[in-house]
Fold this protein.
Amino acid sequence: SRTPSMAARPESVVDGDDRTAWSPAAHDGSPTLTLTLDEPTDVESVTVSVRRGWMARYRPLVRVRLDDREVVVRASADGYLAVSGDDVTTVAISWLPFVGRDRGAAASLEVEEVSVFGADLPRPANEVTRSCGAGPELIVDGTQVATRVEGPRSALWGDGVLRWVACT
């Protein structure tokens, strides 16, 4: 990842939130995203949604590995990758290195979402909560009180407020 912020972590490509996006490290000329599916799935195709028309501008060659089978395809302008496979548990997407004047193109890649058609990828809950006792230490009149955090998921990257709540 280019940054350690919550909004830029690799999980951003499957969270269903267009406010988050993953970007590879600036020096990574051939970035790879790998999705591990919970159970074998028949994959019909893969679509990579990116920001600022990046796919249309660069039309990259992409190596897609479905378990042990690899295929190289040119991404469509809207990020569609014509790949398929049966009983797939791992989908790895690698952008092949650019040559010539576009060598630095991968540095501007911002992936908002990866969709695997044929697989229902789980989406995180809109609300964040942690178990009682997972929050900071709170002592009231010499008695320790267990706390937890709760609030909107968007607060993890600064859009909203997380609250620490006493839970005992």
In short: The mean pLDDT is 87.
